[in-house]
Specification:
single chain; 466 residues; mainly alpha; 17 helices; 2 strands
């Protein structure tokens, strides 16, 4: 156990004695450490307990141990208006993990999460991946309940301010130190994963921060940047809102230097969506054309002109970026990585067909596409439950008019964050960050105020002018 793990465990223990909302602050703060094992994997059956998972477990445990909150959690889990489909998906995931690998053992072939034995059989990966899925689902339910407090969104965003800062710092360390980075990262990369350090694209060193690989670092940077851009206006002070925007653009830069294809696609979606969102809000009068906004737009325009002039005067400046884009996008289909990932998806879909749409069980089949993973692992029923839940959130209206902008921002965050997941995620787990977003959005769109409580009390957290 390394010193960062000990510090985080001590912080978790201390935060357990405070309010549950503060655990969200801690959760955001540790998001940059995606390869740190809080406990030695060999001591817990080979399971990698990452900081974000550990803090989420603490959050769930605190809520479940509260005698006043626990019964309400059960009610919310079966809430017809919002959470019932997610609960159904979680039950299907449990059943699939326990039964399906045994039902179809030796009858179908899959690319396993670990090892090279392609005949379907029960493995420890079924229970490990199921654990991640259950934690993400329960986090969504717990946050759905917590969001009745106006402090929740504030703590969540403040945590991401800290976590985003750590992502930027660790990315810069990886970018500057290069081959020496493992000397620094030794204490932070203790999870039992396959690490892809030191790889290059067209002579440019890929940046992975303190994570397993560049795609994980780039995808996380895009995810946090999207939250800060679309929802950062809910922070209380002008200084915090300005910091959120500056940090979001710094994370965009980190995603660029990660040279991850999925992160680049996510960036395109993020930036184009954010541009349209800003224009629509301005046209609707929700974002006043203040001096600060004018200065920001002018600076952006000047930067574009300077860059254009530099390229005109020195065309050779485009040689390196052109070579990188060629490798990342146009030659991607000829790479061994593309072949392997395509094979994973093909085998998983074939296994789904061979099991008549029932699926092979959570953790049985490795994929390179979140949708393929959900459907192939949990079957058609699991896929319908999960997609139905997401559709319900995306098409639901804010429960109160003052939450309209906040709800719209969260919907865009979820859409942007799913782009890298759909392109590269290997398991059905949608992640704790998305689980938190699900819970917030479910709370702010729920019409279940008929329960007698103002479930949309965070009205004070409405978005302020960017």
């Amino acid at each position: 156990m390394t010193y960062p793990a000990i510090i985080i465990l001590l912080a978790m223990a201390a935060f357990l004695f405070g309010s549950a909302e503060r655990l969200l602050l801690l959760w955001g703060s540790v998001i940059a450490f995606g390869a740190l094992a809080l406990l030695p994997p060999e001591a817990i059956g080979g399971f990698n307990l990452l900081p974000t998972t550990g803090v989420a477990l603490a959050l769930i445990a605190k809520a479940a141990s509260d005698q006043k909150r626990a019964p309400d959690l059960v009610r919310l889990a079966f809430e017809l208006d919002a959470m019932i489909l997610l609960t159904i998906f979680m039950f299907i995931a449990v059943i699939s993990s326990v039964l399906y690998p045994r039902m179809f053992q030796g009858q179908v072939q899959v690319v396993p999460m670990r090892g090279d034995h392609w005949d379907l059989e029960p493995t420890m990966a079924n229970f490990a991946q199921l654990g991640y899925v259950v934690v993400s689902c329960l986090t969504a339910i717990v946050v759905r309940q917590m969001a009745e407090s106006p402090r929740v969104i504030d703590y969540f965003l403040k945590g991401l301010l800290i976590g985003g800062t750590m992502l930027t710092i660790t990315g810069l360390i990886s970018l500057i130190m290069g081959s020496q980075a493992p000397l620094v990262n030794a204490a932070f990369k203790t999870a039992k994963y396959t690490y892809l350090e030191g790889s290059e694209v067209a002579g440019f060193r890929r940046v992975d921060g303190f994570m397993t690989e560049a795609s994980a670092f780039g995808g996380t940077s895009v995810a946090v940047a999207s939250v800060l851009l679309f929802v950062g206006g809910a922070l209380k002070t002008g200084f915090q809102r300005s910091m959120a925007k500056l940090l979001a653009w710094a994370l965009v830069g980190m995603a660029i230097v990660s040279t991850s294809t999925s992160a680049y696609v996510g960036l395109v979606v993020l930036l184009s969506t954010y541009g349209v969102w800003c224009v629509v809000r301005a046209m609707q009068g929700r974002t006043p054309l203040t001096a600060r906004v004018v200065i920001e737009l002018s600076a952006t325009f000047v930067a574009v002109l300077v860059g254009f002039a530099a390229v005109i005067l020195h065309p050779e400046l485009l040689d390196q970026p052109r070579a990188m884009m060629d490798v990342i996008f146009f030659k991607k289909i000829y790479s061994s990585s593309y072949y392997d990932r395509s094979l994973w998806n093909k085998m998983a879909l074939q296994a789904l067909s061979d099991t008549w749409g029932i699926g092979v069980g959570v953790g049985s089949a490795r994929t390179s596409n979140w949708l393929v993973s959900v459907v192939s692992n949990t079957g058609v029923l699991g896929g319908l439950a999960m997609l139905g839940f997401i559709a319900r959130l995306l098409f639901a209206r804010a429960s109160r008019p003052e939450l309209k902008d906040l709800v719209g921002g969260l919907k865009l965050v979820i859409l942007v964050n799913f782009v890298p997941q759909i392109m590269a995620t290997t398991t059905p787990d949608f992640g704790v960050l998305t689980g938190i977003e699900f819970g917030l959005l479910a709370a702010f769109t729920a019409s279940a105020m008929r329960s007698g409580r103002a479930s949309a009390r965070p009205a004070a957290a409405g978005l302020r002018p960017a």
